[in-house]
Design a protein that fits this description.
Layout: E1 2-7, H1 13-27, E2 31-36, H2 45-54, E3 57-63, H3 71-84, E4 91-99, H4 106-114, E5 119-128, H5 141-164, E6 168-169, H6 176-192, E7 197-199, H7 209-213, E8 219-222, E9 225-228, H8 237-241, E10 247-249
Helix pairs in contact: 1-5
The structure holds flavin mononucleotide and iron/sulfur cluster (2 copies).
One iron/sulfur cluster binds near residues 199, 204, 206 and 210.
Amino acid sequence: MNYSTFYFSGTGNTRWAVAEFTKRIQEQGHQAAQFSIDIGSQLSDEQIRAIVADADAIGFANPIYGGDIPPLMRAFLSRVVGLIGPLPSPKSTYVINTYGYVNAFGPTEMQTLLAGSGLTLTAYVNIQLCNNVTSSKPLDRARLAKRMDRGRQELQRLADCLIAGRKRIKGHGPQLLIGALIRKKVPEAIAKFYQTLGVDRARCTRCMVCIKNCPTGSIQLKGDKFVFSSGCTACMRCYNFCPTGAITIDGVVADPQKFPRYQGPEA
Ligand SMILES: Cc1cc2nc3c(=O)[nH]c(=O)nc-3n(C[C@H](O)[C@H](O)[C@H](O)COP(=O)(O)O)c2cc1C
Ligand code: SF4
Ligand code: SF4
């Protein structure tokens, strides 16, 4: 069997989860591949069609933003559905979500977005790791290690169920009410997030890490000015990975001592 996962990961949690899943599928003698949907990976229409056609099951993996699917993944799903048209026969589809504190609407939203395509949701997991938005709490490494262990077990079960052809939809539910409240507010904030971003010139070394790594190509250097544009998916990658902590939010550089930058589970 052949499993192909398309993924978006702002700061590394989801990439870690996908790599763990891929490893578990391969350990059982099957094929598994993972494809980033970042702008830099430049998956062509032909490549996407071929990946879907060749796979026995297709996966989508992303973080939960505002109890929902990030705009970048939403746009990608709609591209895939448009490219493949209604498939002649249904194809098993699995979803891996990661979240920081409130699980939410991943499976229902996915089903809606994939409706009519023939990509049929048969398995869903939502794995709690750590929050990647600005936080004054130091990273609790012991808690993260526990969550990674639980995540590995859940990903093993996901792999086992897919291989056995069993349905498994897990990881949403008790917090749907809180998710619903968040969901009302956050999409608007995400759409406007680029307007809050900036660069502190005194700290910036012009290393271009932010520009090269923005998953949506939303940062440009125009003259001596950094310009953030509306394609931004609010992933926090520029903020968390700037080597000098020079990215500002609402004009402020958060003190790295008080607001440690989150760089993924294996940093
Ligand atoms: C804009 C934004 C919104 C988020 N909203 C939620 C949320 O509603 N619920 C939640 O549990 N975590 C939320 N998070 C945290 C991420 O889902 C979590 O840290 C995720 O694992 C990050 O994955 P990544 O490292 O692959 O980007 C949000 C993060 C961002 C950047
Ligand atoms: S990553 Fe940071 S230091 Fe490098 S160019 Fe961007 S803002 Fe400047
Ligand atoms: S501008 Fe920053 S927060 Fe927005 S998509 Fe690019 S890296 Fe992510």
